[in-house]
């Protein structure tokens, strides 16, 4: 399989972890309030949580798809519809809320629980597994691929959000500026669905 076949996964991983949401908001607020070093346990927990969640979803769903290949089209359609819905939600969102109250930096476990107890994260993990199952030859390979891709993207994204916490809060002053940024990211995520249907 060519490297181009993995481009949609790379775009999905980058956009889904970079766009504002609960994890990025928490990393931004933690970075602004406590600095990068004290926020590392939180970011490591979120990254670990997402990587494990993606791997678990991929391992289970890939096994199901191998046992019943006719489900792959339905799952790919469901995954694509979810990605379009997520792109719309991202495109319509505003600025992250930095007024999150934290007395101390969140822990590794707190970061992992943020993902494990979030229904949106579960839905995203299953949608990714359904949409990108064609990139792997089996459940273990898909679990490794998705866990690695989303884990690496999450680590990079959270680091950027954490370091840019106060800078972003000062640079993007209006709701309109945040909405323009999110509209661009939402469009990029929606466009990432197109290459999945070329396979």
Describe the secondary-structure layout.
Layout: H1 7-18, H2 22-34, H3 36-67, H4 71-92, H5 108-116, H6 119-132, H7 139-163, H8 165-171, H9 175-191
Helix pairs in contact: 1-7, 1-9, 2-3, 2-7, 3-5, 3-6, 3-7, 4-6, 4-9, 7-8
Kindly describe this structure:
The protein is mostly helical and 199 residues long. It has one domain. It is 76% helix and 0% strand. The protein has nine helices and no strands. α1 (7-18) packs antiparallel against α9 (175-191). The longest helix has 32 residues, at 36-67. The protein starts with 6 loop residues before the first helix and ends in an 8-residue tail after the last helix.
Q: Which key terms come to mind for this protein?
A:
199 residues, mainly alpha, 9 helices, 76% helix, globular
């Amino acid at each position: 399989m060519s490297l181009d076949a993995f481009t949609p996964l790379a775009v999905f991983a980058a956009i889904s972890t970079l766009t504002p949401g609960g994890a990025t908001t928490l990393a931004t607020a933690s970075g602004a309030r406590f600095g990068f070093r004290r926020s590392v346990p939180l970011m490591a927990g979120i990254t670990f949580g997402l990587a494990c969640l993606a791997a678990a979803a991929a391992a289970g769903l890939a096994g199901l798809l191998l046992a019943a290949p006719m489900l792959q089209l339905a799952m790919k359609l469901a995954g694509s519809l979810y990605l379009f819905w997520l792109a719309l939600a991202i495109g319509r969102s505003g600025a992250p809320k930095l007024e999150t109250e934290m007395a101390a930096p969140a822990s590794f476990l707190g970061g992992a629980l943020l993902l494990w107890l979030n229904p949106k994260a579960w839905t995203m993990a299953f949608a990714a597994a359904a949409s990108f199952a064609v990139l792997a030859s089996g459940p273990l390979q898909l679990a490794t691929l998705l866990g690695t891709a989303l884990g690496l993207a999450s680590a990079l994204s959270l680091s950027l959000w954490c370091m840019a916490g106060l800078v972003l809060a000062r640079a993007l002053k209006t709701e309109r500026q945040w909405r323009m940024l999110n509209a661009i990211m939402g469009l990029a995520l929606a466009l990432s669905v197109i290459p999945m249907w070329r396979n």
